[in-house]
Design brief:
heterodimer; A: 150 residues; alpha+beta; four-stranded mixed β-sheet; four-stranded antiparallel β-sheet; 4 helices; globular; B: 81 residues; 2 helices; 5 strands
Amino acid sequence: MMISVQQHDFDHATEYQALRDSADNDGAIVTFTGLVRDFNCHNAVSSIKLEHYPGMTEKSLMSICSLARERWELGQIRVIHRVGVIDAKEQIVFVGVSSTHRAAAFEAAQFIMDHLKTQAPFWKKESTANGVNWVEAKESDEQAANKWSG
Amino acid sequence: MIQIFLFANIREKIGADRVNFEYSGEQTVADVKRHLIERGGNWDLLASEEVLVAVNQTISDHNTQVNDGDELAFFPPVTGG
């Protein structure tokens, strides 16, 4: 399990290769990369600033990955989340999972992202032509995370 | 002493990212919160049901027990990813 909260960008090919190098008996690797959108519902967004809670962020991501491991038989898990100022269209988050079979890898990657969106202590502030504003949490993200319970 | 951390718009509106709180026998998060709100200013933001709390870096609630030396944090719903 590799978790990194970092300011600098990441290279998808390097992360994929790291998963592949340790995916001993796995038959599937699923990766997800999140990008900063250059628009919100009202304005063009030029950049965002990511604030986080050092310590709790890593702890929260670890616990989400451990929950995924309890639920599916997984090989490797790599999660990267950037913090600080990130320009529109840049990469912000990476989740990569390996598993014996594809269904577990697909589902676990989505499970990790859905829970990261609603539990990991990150906050986005957008810069637009009309000024800066904190992004509000979406009900749809909450629903996406809730669908895994029960 | 209890360390209080504030994040995002809560941090901005209250104007502090970290506050030391003299522990005087508070039993729960709700007790600490009540004392903080009594400080006046924008501390009343903590009364909002939307505001989340973590005790020792774990999401908690009003009834969570607090002890001297704990770390508390108040913040809005998270928006990462």
